[in-house]
Write a structure and sequence with these properties.
By secondary structure, the chain is α/β, with parallel strands linked by helices. The chain has helices at 34-62, 65-78, 81-92, 97-114, 118-139, 162-165, 186-193, 205-208, 230-250, 275-283, 295-299, 307-321, 356-362, 364-377, 393-412, 430-434, 436-440, 450-458, 476-492, 509-515, 527-535, 539-550, 555-565; strands spanning 2-3, 5-8, 11-19, 153-157, 173-178, 198-200, 214-218, 223-226, 258-259, 265-272, 289-293, 325-329, 382-387, 423-427, 446-448, 496-498, 519-522. The longest helix has 29 residues, at 34-62.
């Protein structure tokens, strides 16, 4: 058995088709005829554009509009004024087109990868796809024919790129295995969109598997079962049939309110990273957006976005949501998210350094520009502002004062906005949990970010395998903080949501219901599952489970018990 990351649910039983990487090697050379080389580059861009548009149309027809837009976005990468201008400058300096394309693409890849943020690193995968496609055209290398895959195929690739998706016939592909990728990578996103079981980040998968051999892809547990016996095949066939039946049953919850078995109503929203994701949230039956991460606007470029550019993005999301709530988190950079052009100094411990609200309050012009853009968007929907990484009441007060300044500027300019826009706090540090009673007096809402809250509370880095055993939202200390934050919010009469990954965890749901959480914000694909899980519990049952859990002393006791009641 081979182990990886389960990134798209389901069970696939089929035979391997290896998709080896193309040979894109070349020898850089100095060009004598610059004009001819520039024309060769421009012709390759035209070819790339035509091929990508054709691929996008195929994806639109077979997968969906949102996935087609990913491919169409590749055209804007190579057609970006800065990208294209710098490539042509390198060619004008007598570099060959291949070298110029690779050099500029690599610069952006390195920049995005250095961020450490999964959503930003996803952009690096886009640029790699563009780079490889452009080099294929310039070098005359033919694309891999995934469309030739027969029925019952398990695709095994280094990385599933958006351009590969156009060749996939969904009825023929029963599983996907890659050597790279994460839960938020395009490989995962595309596999989930096509509803194909996928296991990512399987080390040396291409070297260990052979075309034609039978394997089982377990997208839940991240297993690739090799040489399965008839008994194992029968076992997984039964699992697959059960999963497909349960999946059909989830559709019964589409279009229904999010209600517990005893009648308590909850708000079930989605976490998004781009305006396009707002459409996905609506498509998956989300009741709004509990977290709009705005970093993408700042990261995918070489300069600060203007107020108008930000306004357009926020307005787009608000209009798509048609009056449903849209909580926009202000810029959360630093820590694991770097933006080179902002000139952040390297710090020994960036997670506890000059980041998020701390950076924004010291860069008031930039921060005010974002706040004004959010305020302007509030004229088009139920928009709310959320400040990240609040650790002291002074930070909230200073942020709210800047909101008032921005309102004054907009009034003077005659620009409409919601005068009563809610301003809330992302409670993601142990400090914010300890002073939740004080913050609740001055915030309009709370949203609990469990990823950072767990890391800061347990003083552990989730990426460090040596201390990974400590990183769990079911640690007694983390649960006590979550309970305290919720109870203080409820006592003050403000809504309390959770936008961390724990909000979708079936074992966490009864605890959150008991504590008094009012809003769950999860990935779009989890909406129906969470609605179903909430519907299973009465408030009394949830209270009984929570009482037992809060009396327990260790994470293992808690998780072992919760597994028996879920």
């Amino acid at each position: 058995m081979m182990k990886g990351l389960g990134a798209s649910d389901g069970y696939g039983i089929g035979r391997v088709m290896l998709i080896s990487e193309k040979n894109l090697e070349y020898t850089p050379k100095e060009i004598a005829d610059v004009e001819a080389e520039l024309e060769r580059f421009r012709a390759s861009v035209k070819t790339f554009t035509a091929e990508t548009l054709a691929q996008a149309q195929t994806v639109r027809e077979t997968v969906g509009e949102k996935e087609a837009k990913i491919l169409e976005g590749h055209i804007s990468i190579i057609d970006d004024d800065f990208m294209r201008g710098e490539i042509e400058n390198l060619i004008s300096a007598h570099q060959c087109a291949e070298s110029a394309v690779e050099q500029m693409c690599q610069m952006f890849i390195d920049m995005f990868m250095a961020s450490g943020d999964e959503l930003t690193m996803q952009r690096a995968a886009d640029v790699r796809d563009v780079r490889d496609s452009m080099l294929s055209i310039l070098l005359g290398v033919n694309e891999v024919k995934i469309s030739d895959a027969p029925a019952g195929t398990v695709l095994v690739v280094k990385e599933l790129t958006p351009s590969m998706t156009a060749g996939i016939k969904k009825d023929n592909i029963v599983g996907i295995v890659t050597e790279t990728g994460s839960q938020t990578s395009h490989s995962a996103i595309l596999a989930r969109a096509m509803e194909i079981p996928a296991v990512l980040s399987v080390p040396k998968a291409l070297a260990q598997l052979s075309t034609g051999e039978q394997v089982i892809v377990d997208g839940f547990n991240g297993d690739v079962v090799t040489a399965p016996t008839p008994e194992v095949i029968e076992e997984y066939t039964a699992k697959r049939d059960t999963y497909l039946r349960e999946k059909r049953e989830l559709e019964l919850y589409r279009g229904k309110p999010t209600v517990s078995a005893s009648g308590e109503v909850y708000e079930l929203c989605c976490n998004i990273g781009t305006p396009k994701d707002a459409g996905k949230a609506m498509e998956k039956d989300g009741e709004g957006v509990g977290l709009f991460r705005t970093e993408f606007l700042f990261m995918d470029r070489a300069t600060l976005p203007t107020e108008d550019e930000q306004f357009d993005a926020y307005k787009t999301a608000a209009v798509v949501l048609k009056g449903k709530p849209l909580i926009i988190r202000t810029l959360d950079i630093g820590g694991d998210k770097e933006i080179p052009y902002l000139g952040l100094e390297k710090e020994e411990n960036p997670f506890m350094g000059f980041r998020a609200i701390r950076y924004c309050l010291k860069n008031r012009d930039m921060f005010k520009s974002q706040i004004k853009a959010i305020l302007r968007a509030s004229a088009f929907g139920d928009v709310r502002i959320m400040f990240p990484l609040i650790t002291a009441v002074e930070e909230l007060r200073e942020g709210k004062a800047l909101v008032e300044e921005a309102k004054s500027d907009l009034r003077a300019s005659g620009i409409e906005f919601n005068e009563n826009i809610p301003v809330g706090v992302m409670t993601e540090t142990s400090a914010s949990g300890v002073i939740a009673d004080l913050l609740a007096k001055e915030a309009d809402f709370f949203s609990i970010g469990t990823n950072d809250l767990t890391g800061y509370t347990m003083a552990c880095d989730r990426g460090n395998s040596n201390v990974g055993y400590l990183y769990s939202p079911f640690q007694p200390s983390v649960l006590r903080l979550i309970k305290s934050i919720i109870e203080n919010g409820v006592k003050a009469g403000i809504p309390v949501g959770m936008c961390g990954e724990a909000a979708a965890n079936p074992m966490m749901i009864p605890l959150l219901m008991s504590f008094g959480l009012t809003e769950f914000s999860v990935s779009a694909v989890s909406v129906l599952k969470v609605r179903k899980n909430i519907a299973k519990w009465t408030k009394a049952e949830a209270d009984e489970v929570a009482a037992k859990v809060m009396a327990m002393a260790t994470e293992k006791e808690i998780t072992d018990y919760l597994k028996t009641v879920i």
